[in-house]
Amino acid sequence: MKLKKLIKQCQNKELKAQRALYELYSSKLFSLCLKYSKNYTEAQDNLQDAFIRIYENIHQFKHKGSFEGWMKRIAINTALQRYRNQKVFSLNYEENLIQPENDYTENSISLQELLKCIQELPNRYRMVFNLYVLDGYSHREIAEMMEISEGTSKSNLARGRQILKDKVNVILDNEDTNKTAYNL
Fold first, then answer.
1. Parts of the chain with a pLDDT under 70
2. Tell me: the pLDDT tens digits for 43-87?
3. Distances (CA, A) of 38 to 43, 46, 76, 143, 155
4. Dihedral class, residue 61 (left if φ above 0, else alpha if ψ from -120 to 50, else beta)
5. Distances (CA, A) of 148 to 44, 138, 181
6. Which of 34, 135, 150, 166 could disulfide-link to 43, CB 3.0 to 4.6 Å?
7. 57-62: long-range contacts (C-beta < 8 A, 24 or more apart)?
8. What pLDDT score was predicted for residue 162?
9. What predicted TM-score, i.e. pTM, was given to this entire model?
10. Which domains can be identified in the chain, with CATH numbers?
């Protein structure tokens, strides 16, 4: 089924088309939701809420730009809205934070371990980290989306990176210890 036709049918609230759209894009959007969620269950909730918003607002899609990109933006905004509703923002602003250097090697830990470390970051740090590092938003854009200052965005990114670096180092140290103990 062509995408334009599928979108049109979804705009007409046809359930079969909505199901087809879900089956076509749910795995990609779930991966995105997982990045912005603290666990698997929250990611499932964000995915469900995102699809509800997609179905409710699909009439606003004007076939300009990527439909997948439009849906990804809704999924990200859904996760951000859930986060904002939790009222857990803390304004952590430090003007002169030094960016920690990335001194661990690529492929040092598995993707699953890294995702778990990212999910364990405090909410505000995880959100800023994902938006900046993984999705390429600027600090200005992040500040607008999260309703914080650019300085807070930069501070949260620096703190999130440091926490992530510490977590990765612990994993790498444990792996080295296990390898050493096994070789004895």
1. 1, 86-108, 176-184
2. 999 999 999 999 999 999 988 889 999 999 999 999 888 877 765
3. 8, 11, 14, 21, 20
4. beta
5. 26, 13, 47
6. 34
7. 58/7, 58/10, 58/11, 59/11, 61/7
8. 95
9. 0.62
10. 3-85 (1.10.1740.10), 111-183 (1.10.10.10)
Q: Which residue has the tokens 């859904």?
A: 78
Sole residue written with tokens 């995702």: 115
Q: Which residues of 85-115 are buried (b: 16+ CB within 10 A; e: fewer)?
A: eeeebeebeeeebeeeeeeeeeeebeeeeee
Identity of the amino acid at 120:
E
CA distance 59 to 176: 54
Amino acid letter, residue 98 = I
Rounded to whole angstroms, the Cα distance separating 53 from 57 reads 6
Q: Note the pLDDT of residue 28.
A: 94
